[in-house]
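Onboarding guide, step 5: your first structure request.
Type a short instruction followed by the sequence, for example:

Predict the 3D structure of this protein.
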Amino acid sequence: MSTGWIVLGVIVIIVLFAFAAYNRLVALSQRVSQAFADIDVQLKQRHDLVPNLVETVKGYASHERGTLDDVIKARNSAISAQGPAQVSAAENQLSGALGRLIALSEAYPDLKANANFQQLASELSDLENKIAASRRFFNNAVQEYNTGIQQLPAALFAGMFGFTRKEFFDLGASRTEVEVAPTVKF
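The system replies with structure tokens like these:
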């Protein structure tokens, strides 16, 4: 009789561990989803800003058509991207194209002095900082989630419940550019 109670007690403990692990993994997964949604909001704001920036530059540097077309193509690609990996790659392309667009202002002093361009460039800079902060928050949430599904006792149940590793919002190809320290020459 007492063996039955012990077995029942062990089963109850295992079930409680499974419920606790499941609930914790659901909470971590929701945090990852919420963090990605935060990035998505920031990226949408950037996508909305790009046409205004392109139109402003177009007025001053209309013969820079290739750069303007690259920005529009990168924006359209970024808008249609799905999931963290595709969004990350598309946004990195858009960041590069926007960097080239902003660099055009150095060649056109009238454009650089334009109040509308300055305001749009300032908004873009602010959004880039917000996106970077959102990416850090997202990557932290992914790290906690991935750690959660690999730690015991959750690791015993994670696969059964359908929890799989999530990808980080990575810099991708531009990582080598970011990791190389700039050279300063006097």
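Each response can be followed by summary notes, for example: The chain has a mean pLDDT of 84.
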